[in-house]
Amino acid sequence: MTQKQTVMSDRDMKSSQDLWGGRFAEPTDAFVQRFTASEGFDRQLAGYDVAGSRAHANMLAKAGVLTEQENNLIQQGLTDVLGEIERGEFEWRVDREDVHMNIEARLTELIGDTGKKLHTGRSRNDQVATDLRLYLRAEIDAAMAELTRLQSGIVLLASKHADTIMPGFTHLQVAQPVTFGHHLLAWNEMLERDHGRLVDCRRRLNVSPLGAAALAGTTFPIDRDATAAALGFDAATRNSLDSVADRDFAIEFCAAAALIMSHLSRISEELILWTSAQFGFVRLPDRFCTGSSIMPQKKNPDVPELVRGKSGRATGNLVALLTLMKSQPLAYNKDNQEDKEALFDTVSTVRDCLRAFADMVPAIEPNEEAMRQAALEGFSTATDLADYLVRAGIPFRDAHEVVGKAVAHCVASHCDLSDLSLTDLQGFHSAIQEDVFDVLTLEGSVLARNHFGGTSPERVREAAAAAADALTARQAPGE
Ligand code: ARG
Predict the structure, then answer these.
(1) Could you give the 3-state DSSP secondary structure of residue 236?
(2) How many Å apart are CA 150 and CA 355, to the nearest integer?
(3) Best probe residue, ligand 1, of 96, 97, 124 (max atoms within 8 Å of C-beta)
(4) 233 pLDDT band (50/70/90 cuts)?
(5) From the CA of 333, how far away is ligand 1's center (Å)?
(6) Domain range annotation of the chain
(7) What CATH architecture does domain 382-440 belong to?
(8) Which of 110-119, 254-263, 436-445 has the lowest mean pLDDT?
């Protein structure tokens, strides 16, 4: 009998080598040990790993696989291990490879041989899939709460600015006047869909892989519904192979997160433009900005700039996970260990960016006069003049041409359409009457767009109230 084949006592169980060493003729190469280890990053799953182990051991005891006494010992041991981790006293060991084996080995050190029974009827494959789902579920809940906080701030600001007029842009050229409240509610629509995607992703991920074991299930009389219920899952997964093989739930979250980041990046871009001296539409409170070490006059919109920059990570992590998954044969492969850093990075990026935005966006200070002035320049009511001519019976294409000529005239003489006299305007078309000036004003322009989804103050007030109600309903208990 070689050294390897000797039965070891729990005190001897020091490293992963001791967890599977029975089959091995030589120890793992030191570099390979570091290369294959994940404890450096997956340790943040510790709380979920312990929760999964508790549910598993309780279920094994109910099924008669563990005695009550053994289960009690395991539960107490897990409490002690978690205590060490939370107090920062836990010794994380790279030779124990990952969070699962670190915890199990420490449990065995603390409670003796009974600790070795915990892994009955499960595998790290269903364990890690369970941990990740539990982790991501909690993170999605946190992200949704921040998203709701951000949306609430935006909607409140929108309701205060239902009458504030600004230029609406296409191609970043002044297009038509809109209300600032309407623009803010457009942001809210983007974020509302983002929230819906998180709800959807959470619903699909909330199933329990526990019991799939390595890939084929287990020979023990396990109760998968019991562990699923204990961990707050809606059900147990239906296929053991799929349970340990797929990370589509993480990819789905990363896709939803990449869209959130893309939306935050677009909003950032607007804030960066709007805070520039050239636009001057809004002021960001100083606490969200930094200065320059050389140019004393500078106040830089660092928060939106960083958020815009960080959106690249979210896209990168999504592509990394899609690529990680795409060629793997069923069932589990070690490739999947690579899912964590990308997922963790997206989770923390989205969490931090949403938090910064939820703090900052409601605090932006619009400069109503600058917005109005910008809307007055750039012929933003030209379409209103064309629509006026259409109402007088002129086909739209002809009206478009007439107004185009009037605008060209104004460009040449450095004035606005509303600066032209009635006689000047009639020179472009005889159908134009005194009432044309009602449609050439900014107020006339936004008031006229009074249909569902339009920019008129009345509609914006209505939309802001509906959005606020939807957010309140979302936060209501039991939602
Ligand atoms: N650390 C591993 C991971 O993150 C846990 C599962 C390992 N399973 C295995 N059969 N080697 O995926």
Answers:
(1) strand
(2) 8
(3) 124
(4) very high
(5) 8
(6) 4-120, 125-373, 382-440
(7) Orthogonal Bundle (1.10)
(8) 436-445
